[in-house]
Specification:
Distance between the termini: 59 Å
CATH topology: Rossmann fold
Strand content: 5-15%
Structural class: alpha/beta
Helix content: 25-40%
Radius of gyration: 20 Å
Shape: globular
CATH class: Alpha Beta
CATH architecture: 3-Layer(aba) Sandwich
Largest sheet: 9 strands, mixed
Length: 417
């Protein structure tokens, strides 16, 4: 009975994953509805920005923006978005802020709010030269020197490769373009995972970091809960079946997501509560801070796509309760690592100063797992529990009062270095 139940659950889940992994070919049409909260803030309507790119959104808010491209050592072509200065205009010797996004996210997730509450704009107006990364496979980084994103080979990577290739290449590009001797690093969720892994594999990059602010940090997942974590025991089975189906990518951003965002996630929609509850199921509860005015914009840009292996890697972390490299199975591990088990990352090599920012109701970066990470870091300079009873995984980027609860402390941390 248990096997039948597991097989049924897995089959249903695989069909759902397959459905959301297939980019829609249909042209979805809609009519704009009346403006409300957005109109009161100078934006045209509730659906403003759904079809706009990150650079277009930045420009629409009156900030300067640049697009840069970086080619990694293994051939992936990444797109970076830069806000060189705030609305006050350029100045000399601006410190550099480098922002790394979360799983299924992109550069857009640091601007999904009004300028006084969105971290990218806040840093730009505070005097920083802001660079927004896009790691391989998301909406903006779906190119390669030889591989085709329509083929499975393009997607044969996890966040291991992002840590080893994407983040170092992006940081090197930023330092070359700006002439700075180091960056102020912000990571959110997977943006913290790749930071810690990079420092383990390339400890020389510690010298290129002024200080790191880790929001909702993820290196351990032993205490993580939620629907995604419930599937962790079946991660190897799911991965194999998806590969047999030729599926390498999950949850891409496409026209279907734009349509769903506009039709069902609008604050005036009778279905909007479904969108809210879906987000709470992913990141944990916090009804007070969900920015309902921006929900259609968020859903239209996020999820931004990820490889099957990247998502599977987090399931493996839950199962092993360790911060380790991707598990290819016993034979695959022998081929890749020369051993049966995937190697552990060495957090003692993270010698750059680190500040951790965590919430009480974060289901993915559970406070107990964050405490374990904090104990393993040799240069922890701040261990900051957001002073709110409910503050979840997604609040760090999208909360109504994110600046009050988190970003002011990040600015204080940066100013000390």
């Amino acid at each position: 009975m248990r096997g039948t139940e597991m097989g049924l659950k897995t089959s249903v889940f695989l069909l759902a994953l397959w459905a959301v992994s297939v980019p829609t070919q249909e042209s979805w049409a809609w009519s704009h509805k009346r403006g409300s909260a957005h109109a009161r803030r100078g934006l045209p309507n509730d659906h403003w920005g759904i079809n706009m790119t990150t650079p277009e959104l930045i420009d629409a808010f009156g900030y300067p923006v640049e697009i840069h491209h970086v080619t990694t050592e293994d051939g992936y072509i990444l797109e970076m978005h830069r806000i060189p200065h705030g609305k006050a205009g350029p100045s000399e010797n601006r410190p550099v802020a480098y922002l790394e996004h979360c799983l299924l996210c992109s550069s857009s997730d640091y601007i999904m709010n009004y300028p006084e509450e969105a971290l990218a704009y806040i840093l730009a107006d505070a005097g920083y030269d802001v660079w927004l990364s896009n790691m391989r496979g998301n909406t903006y980084s779906r190119n390669h020197t030889t591989l085709d994103p329509e083929k499975l080979d393009f997607w044969k990577y996890s966040w291991d490769e992002m840590a080893l290739y994407d983040v170092p290449a992006s940081i090197d590009h930023v330092l070359k373009e700006t002439g700075a001797d180091g960056v102020y690093y912000v990571g959110w969720s997977m943006g913290t995972t790749v930071f810690f892994a990079m420092m383990s594999e390339k400890p020389e990059y510690n010298d290129k970091i002024k200080v790191m602010a880790g929001m909702a940090p993820v290196a351990y997942l032993g205490n993580a809960i939620g629907p995604i974590m419930e599937l962790a025991p079946y991660v190897m089975e799911v991965e194999v079946v998806l590969q047999l189906l030729g599926v390498g990518e999950l949850f891409p951003s496409n026209e279907l997501m734009d349509y769903l965002a506009e039709e069902y996630c609008d604050v005036n929609s009778t279905y909007s509560q479904i969108c809210y509850n879906f987000l709470f199921l992913l990141g944990g509860p916090d009804a007070d801070e969900l920015h309902k005015d921006f929900l259609p914009l968020i859903i239209s840009h996020t999820p931004a796509g990820a490889s099957v292996n990247t998502i599977a890697h987090y399931g493996q972390m839950k199962n092993s309760n360790n911060f380790c490299k991707f598990d290819y199975g016993e034979l695959g591990n022998i081929m890749h690592y020369g051993r049966r088990e995937p190697p552990l990352y060495n957090l003692t090599k993270v010698t750059a100063p680190v500040g951790l920012f965590w919430g009480n109701t974060d289901w993915l970066a559970d406070p107990a797992d964050v405490a374990r990470l904090a104990a393993d870091l040799p240069n922890l300079v701040l261990d900051y529990n957001v002073p709110k009873e409910e503050f979840n995984h997604l609040d760090f980027g999208w909360a109504i009062h994110a600046n009050e609860y988190v970003y002011t402390k990040i600015l204080e941390l940066f100013s000390a270095y």
